Amino acid sequence: xxRRRLSQQQRHRIKKAQQSVNLDDENNYPGTVISHxxxxxxxxxxxxxQPNIACKFRSNLGTLVCGDRVVYQRHKNAPAIIxxxxxxxxxxxxxxxxxxxxxxxxxxxxxxxxAVEPAPNLFLLDQYLLSAQQQQVKVLIVLNKADLLxxxxxxxxxxxxIYQPLGYPVLQTSIKSGLNIDRLQQLCIDxxxxxxxxxxxxxxxxxxxxxxQQDIAIGELSEANKEGKHTTRTSRLYHLPLGGQxxxxxxxxxxxxxFEEGLPISAGFVEIEQQAQHxxxxxxxxxxxxxxxxxxxxxxxxxxxxxxxxxxxxxxENPS
Length: 320
Ligand SMILES: Nc1nc2c(ncn2[C@@H]2O[C@H](COP(=O)(O)OP(=O)(O)OP(=O)(O)O)[C@@H](O)[C@H]2O)c(=O)[nH]1
Ligand SMILES: [Mg+2]
Ligand SMILES: [Zn+2]
Hints:
Distance between the termini: 54 Å
CATH topology of the largest domain: Rossmann fold
Largest sheet: 6 strands, mixed
Number of domains: 3
Low-confidence stretches: none
Order of helices and strands: HEEEEEEEEHEHEHEHEEHHH
Strand content: 15-25%
Helix content: 10-25%
Shape: globular
CATH architecture of the largest domain: 3-Layer(aba) Sandwich
CATH superfamily of the largest domain: P-loop containing nucleotide triphosphate hydrolases
Radius of gyration: 22 Å
Strand order of the largest sheet: 10-9-8-11-13-12
Bound molecules: guanosine-5'-triphosphate, magnesium ion, zinc ion
CATH class of the largest domain: Alpha Beta
């Protein structure tokens, strides 16, 4: 099979990053991880005219996730990934047992998908925002199923009221009416987007609305508790028609942040971080210290009580 040609710049960048893997070796090919399931990884060659290839990998390579750039070899019958190229970032969370779960790599925008039904959990939202801040990923908050909002019910969960003033974009969408699907697509251009949220909010429905020709499974909500049924089992990366990529992910039950060294929890709460500079003590944790500007701002209504409560809860769960 003909070897794809890399531009000088690509070759230089990849070579510099990965000196141990020789891309001049004609057996080595660069590609992107599209999905990972059952011990096998689907890799898209950088030359997208080539078909995707199912690869095995050595367990000592570490975790491979959607968005990873890899080097693989096309051994007859047994294509294998031999190396993961250095990541720009790795979006991670902790599961209910405190285990770190990698979500996606080389992500530039996290689409936090909420819905009118099942209704948003603002603690989960604040955990997402903190994770995005820790891992230097831009954020877009989506409230899907806007068709279920009653007339005059423009902001029932206070998302616009609380989050827009903090600088987070909030977009209401609907698959049923098509509301803001074009706008969402525009906001995805030039980004590697990952869409995440609890089961049933419509992550795959949004993906399918942008990519109608793709075979993407959509689930029903349970009649009993109006929760999703965890329809999407593995993440998958799609190329968007207007540019950019979108990684659809399985529904989460939580998104407990993984902390970067040296970045305090307050760094994930922009308004707390801003007020913190006026606290009497530079190491104030804003719990019960005297002359705490953050607590004063909560009392005066400058900081939303729910945001402060969530900050305290995360602080309590993660004593340093
Ligand atoms: N009314 C309404 N229903 C929607 C909308 N978007 C999705 N749904 C419905 O919500 C249900 C769940 O949709 P999915 O796209 O499977 O949800 P998901 O977030 O991918 O769920 P998991 O894969 O389980 O994490 C389906 O019955 C969809 O038809 C919307 O904008 N309005
Ligand atoms: Mg899904
Ligand atoms: Zn303080």
